[in-house]
Structure formats: C-alpha cells, structure tokens
Design goal:
By secondary structure, the protein is α/β, with parallel strands linked by helices. It has a single domain, classed as Rossmann fold (3-Layer(aba) Sandwich). Helix content is about 35%, strand content about 25%. The chain is built from ten helices and ten strands. A six-stranded mixed beta sheet has the order 6-7-8-3-9-10, with helices on both faces. The protein has a four-stranded antiparallel beta sheet with strand order 2-1-4-5, with helices on one face. Strand 4 and strand 5 form a beta hairpin. Helix 3 (about 95-105) packs parallel to helix 6 (about 140-150) and helix 6 (about 140-150) runs parallel beside helix 7 (about 170-185). The longest helix has 16 residues, at about 170-185. The structure holds adenosine-5'-diphosphate (ADP) and magnesium ion. Adenosine-5'-diphosphate (ADP) binds near residues 19 and 43.
Length: about 240
C-alpha cells in the first residue's frame, strides 16, 4: 500500500517562482525513502510543501490515497503525517518532559500513554526528562525532535536532514533509532545531504535536481551507480 504519493508537485515561496518543479515520488507503507540531491535542489522546500508550510501551485499530495494538498500544517498530525524540521525543532527553554507534554496538549492526545510509549523507545530521554532541551547534545536533541513528532503517532514521518551538524558516530545512533521507529510501523521520508548514511538505512531513494525528481531507485542501485553518484551527488562515492 502506498503511504504517501506526490504527483508533479510545484511549490515555492513567491507566486510565479516555483522552486519545486514537477517533483513526483511515492513511499510504500513501512519503507524508508531517502530524498537526496545537491544543496539548493529544493529538498527542504519539497518536504515543507508536503508538510503544509510552503504554498503549492500545482500537483497533488496523497496520504494513504487521501488528498492533503495544501492542507494547513497544524492539521497534518491529525491526518497521520509527522514532520521534523531541520532547525528549531524543539523548545530549548523547556524540559524534555515539557516538550513532549506540550506536543500532546496541542494535539489533544492522551499524555501519559503516549509519553510512556515514547520513553520506552527513547530510554536516554527518559533518564533525563527534567533536563532543558537546550542542554542536550546534538544527537539527543535530534532524538527529542523525533520523539515530539511521534507524539501524534504518525503513519508517515518526514525528517529534514536529521544528520546535520552531528558527528558520524551520532549520525549512526540517530539513524539506528529511525530504523527502530520504522519497526514500530512508521513509514519514513528522510531528506538528507549525508548520502552514504541515508542510503545505508533507506529502501529506496529519490534524487531531486533543480526542483524535480530525476532518479528514483532502490538504495542499493543508487549506492552502486558511480555515474549517478558523480552526476547528482557530488562528493559522494559509492562503495565499489
Ligand atoms: N524561505 C525562503 N524564501 C525564498 N527562497 C527560499 C527560501 N528557502 C529556500 N529558498 C530557495 O529555494 C531554493 C531551494 O532551497 P532548499 O529547498 O532549501 O534546498 P535544499 O534543501 O535542497 O538545499 C534555493 O534557491 C533557496 O535559495
Ligand atoms: Mg535543505
């Protein structure tokens, strides 16, 4: 079953100046899809357009066959779509507990049950739940951002560059957690600059260039194709 489908999407910040120009992709239930592409390709704009944060001028977005194109961002968690933005994805002046509590309040979901479940998945967060989010390490803060998005129990979770600013070791830890999240039945769309790490956990990948999807394939195919790597992924060299 297709969890999320994007058809010929056009989106941008100003009328008549689309940044996303004919992007199409689909994610099957329980897959991890990596969305790759050079800096400035429009990856963040695409994911924000799906998340209702950038105006869409053409095309469609379907979540489990229900059209959600242009739906306001605050409604999407109720539709089963979660989003972890690249920056400002936690409240640094609130504790871990209050970050999650607030997310539950906003969504009007049963707090204790949801938080207990999340703390079981994120034991490191559970151990320091009174700590201010601003005092967390980069990796732990990213974990909290993921946990916040999971409070709404999304069917599809989209993340914008969760590896940004993290050491390779922490990238590994965060990505392993994403694999665990997927195992709980969540479909994942992972926008990444870190091609190697993303392809290591993704099932399939889409490469966005100048606002449109140029290549879609299995992560294995993409990782092994040196031409694709050289042409679209710049610095990346696949394992040979
Ligand atoms: N808030 C914004 N307002 C206007 N233009 C923007 C904004 N954010 C990004 N852009 C432009 O959109 C293009 C794609 O950016 P972005 O989606 O961030 O690419 P990526 O995430 O692939 O690096 C860039 O040319 C960028 O300058
Ligand atoms: Mg970006």
């Amino acid at each position: 079953m297709t969890a999320l489908r994007v058809e010929a999407l056009e989106a941008g910040y100003e009328p008549g100046l689309p940044i996303v120009r004919g992007a199409s992709l689909s994610v099957e239930s329980n897959e991890i899809l990596a969305v790759l592409g050079p800096n400035g390709a429009g990856k963040s704009t695409l994911i924000k357009a799906i998340a209702g944060l950038v105006p869409v001028s053409a095309g469609r977005v379907l979540l489990h066959d229900r059209e959600i194109t242009g739906r306001a961002a605050h409604r999407l968690p109720h539709e089963g779509l979660g989003f972890v933005p690249q920056t400002e994805n936690v409240f640094v002046n609130l504790s871990i507990d209050d970050n999650l509590d607030l997310a539950a309040s906003i969504l009007k979901v049963p707090k204790k049950r949801r938080l207990d479940k999340l703390y079981a998945l994120f034991p490191d967060l559970a151990r320091q739940r009174r700590l201010l989010a601003g005092r967390l390490s980069g990796g732990q803060r990213q974990m909290l951002a993921v946990a916040r998005a999971l409070v709404g129990e999304p069917k599809v979770l989209m993340l914008d560059e969760p590896s940004a600013g993290l050491s390779p070791k922490l990238v590994g830890i965060v990505f392993e957690k994403l694999v665990e999240v997927r195992a709980t039945g969540v479909t994942i769309v992972l926008v990444e600059q870190n091609v190697k790490a993303a392809l290591a956990i993704a099932d399939r990948a889409a490469v966005l260039v100048e606002g449109s999807t140029r290549i879609v394939g299995t992560a294995r195919e993409l990782a092994k194709d040196p031409q694709v790597a050289a042409l679209y992924l710049g610095h990346y060299r696949g394992d040979t």
